[in-house]
Amino acid sequence: MRGRVDARGRRARGDPGGGVVSGDLARAEAVLRAACGERVRTAVPLAPFTTFRVGGPAALFLEAASEDDLRTVAVVARELALPVLVLGRGSNLLVSDAGFPGLALRLGAAFRWVRVEPPRVRAGAAMALPALAGVALQHALAGFEWAVAVPASLGGAIRMNAGAHGGEIAEVLETAEVLDLSTGERAVVKAEDAGFRYRGSSLPDPGVVLAGTLVLRGGDPEQIRARMDEIREWRRRHQPLAEPSCGSVFKNPPGAHAARLIDEAGLKGLAVGGAQLSRKHANFIVTRPGARAEDVATLIRTVQERVAERTGIVLEPEVHLVGAFDLLPH
């Protein structure tokens, strides 16, 4: 069954083509170019912007240089029903081979900054989590060691409540600064109002996280460094870091581990086209040269079906599917 999902990975509604009609797309391009110039590009391949390294082009692409750019995007998105895909480091996205029929939006250098007033660390949404973990170490701030090897931007991590090694964003975030693309309004959202849940949040959608403030705690630099080294070494031993992947593909179901369920179903190493379940970590899908996004989506669906047949548990993808796929996961 052919299906379509939107920029947040949900089954989309309305226009069967998955985006704006060609006339509206041309108008959107014209308005964006008037404000942002040649930084607005067309038919930009998205594979290089995802850690899977697969996927087709975005109809429009913009690397935002300021909040003014984002406000322009908000107006265009609202008035012309332009779908917007906000790109972080692309570690939780699977873009279809047909691509994304709207605007792919990436935050530029203006959103990569950090200010430290211990125990608080305030940073732009484009900052990489490993870099922020390094800043925390420099200031002898503990509580963010878990992020040292997470391949995500701060903005993406806040939106999906990223976590690893016993920690997660919800535990250290004080506030998030967010631009709601449906209204153009900027808001400071307290962590307790963000609707955080396991690998998710209730932040405005569509919306752009602009910055976040973390509250950490004072610690011993040597202990912080030792914990970071321990995490890096664990990942080196247990995860296929040398191959393209999105990290964990499935969320852990209550009381269980997705990797264990997949392994016990005898699926390690299972391949569909150029996509394969890693032999090193059962909850990782790695891609080979020539892989297609459809290969990955089909493998996800196959794993879901095989695990469900054996256990009755339907694994929920952690990765967001974007665009049109021939076979959607459950």
Low-confidence stretches: 1-17
Counted by DSSP, the helix tally is: 8
Main beta sheet strand tally, sense and closure: 5 strands, antiparallel
Can you write the helix and strand succession as a string? EHEEHEEEEEHEHEEHEEEEHHEEEHE
The beta-strand count equals: 19
Helix content: 25-40%
Question: What's the oligomerization state?
Answer: single chain
Short description:
The protein has helices spanning 22-36, 67-80, 129-138, 154-160, 169-172, 221-238, 258-264, 293-311, and strands at 3-5, 41-45, 57-64, 84-87, 93-95, 100-107, 114-117, 120-124, 141-142, 163-164, 167-168, 173-180, 185-190, 207-215, 217-218, 271-272, 275-277, 285-287, 320-325. The protein has 330 residues and is of the alpha+beta class.
Key descriptive features of the protein:
five-stranded antiparallel sheet, Uridine Diphospho-n-acetylenolpyruvylglucosamine Reductase, domain 1, alpha+beta, 8 helices, globular, single chain, 26% strand, 3 domains, four-stranded mixed sheet, Uridine Diphospho-n-acetylenolpyruvylglucosamine Reductase, domain 2, Uridine Diphospho-n-acetylenolpyruvylglucosamine Reductase, domain 3, 330 residues, disordered N terminus
